[in-house]
Write a structure and sequence with these properties.
Rossmann fold; 2 domains; eight-stranded antiparallel β-sheet; about 280 residues; alpha+beta; Elongation Factor Tu (Ef-tu), domain 3
Length: about 280
């Protein structure tokens, strides 16, 4: 795994939301944070998470956070339960900090890193004075993230809680059997590439092993072609297997959308078959 340079101070504040950029939501959050953590740079991880898609947000965060310097603070807002009983939280996992709703958004981060501290954000001294029931990204998460970046300790932000009390996503974990790995499509990127939750670590010789093929059970479709890069020779319209930049096995169509052409949604069951040595 890529290891960024460590930093004792907040290197950046990174933002991940489903807000898009047509409205002023992202700009307002940055305005709030600028007034608290002056001089700390902002990086937009993405604001194009599909609306209310917590799983997609969790996946993008989980495959991207470790490229940032340790000490960075991630303010994450994909929050279909805003205004409900779901808790606003902040946590430290490894050397990074995360602020957002307790709705599974930090699922993949916590699968990768041990939580060192988790706090329910009950101390209103670190919120904006008037908290909206519909925009807690501005009124709670943004100011809290900025206070952390400015050096505030997590225990000062509210009530410390146990990491095992946090919401987890209900996802099928890859099931490894004798000659197969059963999994699902976990993410679809903007190009329509279908990303499974099968890490290359589960089959390191993916490109060398004989008999590798992937079954899309719901479509009764078997994909056998493997490519290391998209420009490799082959039928431009045929789906093929590849390994994405985060190390997960996916399905693509050259210059096309596999999701659209194959009519596949996230959650579709897949089985990676291979010959035993």
């Amino acid at each position: 795994m890529y290891q960024p340079v460590s930093s004792s101070a907040a290197a950046v504040i990174a933002l991940l939301t489903d807000f898009g950029l047509d409205d002023n939501y992202v700009g307002v959050m940055k305005g709030v944070m600028s007034g608290i953590a002056s001089g700390v740079p902002f990086i937009d991880l993405t604001h194009k998470i599909p609306p209310q898609d917590v799983i997609a947000g969790a996946w993008v965060l989980g495959t991207g956070y470790h490229y940032f310097p340790q000490g960075s603070v991630f303010v994450c807002v994909v929050d279909p339960g805003v205004g409900s009983e779901r808790a606003p939280i902040a946590l430290q996992a490894g050397g990074w900090y995360f602020v957002g709703p307790d709705n599974g958004l930090f699922h993949f981060v916590l699968a990768d890193q041990t939580a060192k501290a988790v706090v329910r954000l009950t101390n209103r001294a670190y919120h904006l004075p008037n908290v909206s029931s519909t925009f807690q990204g501005r009124d709670i998460f943004a100011p809290v993230a900025a206070h952390i970046a400015a050096g505030q300790q997590l225990h000062e932000l509210g009530e410390m809680i146990q990491a095992d009390s946090l919401q987890q996503l209900e996802l099928q974990q890859p099931l490894i059997k004798n000659d197969r790995i059963e999994s699902e499509i976990i993410y679809i990127d903007q190009f329509g590439n279908l990303i499974s939750s099968i890490s290359l670590n589960l089959l390191p010789d993916f490109f060398e092993r004989s008999g590798v093929r992937l079954l899309l059970a719901g479509k009764q479709l078997m994909i056998t072609e493997r490519r290391r890069f998209f420009a490799a020779p082959g039928n431009a319209q045929e789906p093929f297997l590849y390994v994405d930049s985060s190390g997960y096995i996916g399905i693509a169509i050259r210059n096309g959308s596999a999701a659209r052409e194959l009519n596949i949604q996230r959650g579709e069951a897949v089985t990676l078959l291979f010959n035993n040595r």
